[in-house]
Amino acid sequence: MADNEALLSVEELKVYFRSEDEVARAVDGVSFKVGREETVCLVGESGCGKTVTALSVMGLVPIPPGEIAGGRILFNDQNLLVFNDNEMQAIRGNQIAMVFQEPLTSLNPVFTIGDQIGEAIQVHQTAPPTEVIQRSEQLLKDVGIADPAQRLKDYPHQLSGGQRQRVMIAMALACDPKLIIADEPTTALDVTVQAQILRLLERIQKERSMSVLYITHDLGVVSKVADRICVMYAGIIAEQGKKDAVLKTPKHPYTQALLASLPNRDKRGQRLYSIPGTVPNPAYKPRGCPFHPRCQYAIQTCCEQFPEMCHYGDAHMARCPVIFDDGREN
Ligand code: SF4
Predict the structure, then answer these.
(1) Mean pLDDT across the chain, nearest whole number?
(2) Could you give phi then psi for residue 38, rounded to 5 degrees?
(3) Fewer Cβ in 10 A, N or C end of the chain?
(4) Ligand 1 within 6 A of CB of 50
């Protein structure tokens, strides 16, 4: 992707959290792009830094204890990290919107759905009450909610989990954003509803020519929705590339291990592979390659030197020179 085709370009982003006696390097030099109308998945285990990356794009990292320790976040070629609160407020919701994991905790239980969608519309635009109601109904229709006039009068607890997530998507769409960040949008839903929500997001993305950045630990979701994938581990990007390249010819041992731990028909009756060890504490990351304590290919250099990014063509890259050097095939 040429630079001018990127809607969002995160460059060497570093986000640290300081306490009295330690510094947690939650995001530690992350770079990736999201093109116009593209779907990019940031994937990794809990604690790998993917949600902090998303919150940084939204300008929602609590500072302090958080600190943007370096990098740039370019949106439409403007660096969001130099924006003040008012400027960021104008971008948030209006041009970049976020759909969170658990709608029941994101929706306010004491206000009706109509109040909350109406507020999302009026944060950035002034409109007479009748128009706000009409637009709220239309948004609920757009996200596939039946009887929208009635649903606007409901409270969040009166809706199902799938309906609540549709309401969250309607609120995200209220100001017609160019980019939606969906943080584990289907994790709290059962499998059939998950598929419906993914199809809904895909349809809306096409209709509105939006870009979507998914934050997920679920490679099943990734395989359905991604154009490109960024695999995060311990605050860095371990591997990124087009979906087929990353899923079919993964280069980084962590990506290979993640894929090996997925259940599939061929492994029926077999014990599933699990990656040994745990994700390191961001305040106490190992020296060298952060994956080395868990990596079956680790050599002495991996314990001493931070690995460089190796390029495989067509924007497919992995931060593992050991695999790159010996030409090991997957
Ligand atoms: Fe494994 Fe070394 Fe590659 Fe890190 S650099 S992924 S430890 S082989």
Answers:
(1) 89
(2) -95, 155
(3) C
(4) no
Nearest atom in ligand 1 to the alpha carbon of residue 254 is 6
Q: Which residue has the higher pLDDT, 329 or 182?
A: 182
Best of 232, 289, 330 for a ligand 1 pocket test (most atoms within 8 Å of beta carbon): 289
Q: What's the confidence (pLDDT) of residue 329?
A: 44
Residues recorded for the chain: 330
Q: C-alpha 36: how far from its chain's center?
A: 16
Question: What φ, ψ does residue 278 adopt, rounded to 5°?
Answer: -135, 165
Q: What is the pLDDT of residue 325?
A: 67
The most confident of the ranges 111-120, 143-152, 200-209, 234-243 is 234-243
d(CA 65, CA 61): 9
Residue 288 backbone zone (phi > 0: left; psi -120 to 50: alpha; other: beta):
left
- Tokens 């370009």 belong to 9
Which of 203, 213, 210, 204 is closest to 182 using CA atoms?
A: 213
Q: Is 17 in the pocket of ligand 1 (CB under 6 A)?
A: no
Q: Is the CB of 250 under 6 A from ligand 1?
A: no
Give 186's DSSP letter. Answer: T
pLDDT at position 68: 96
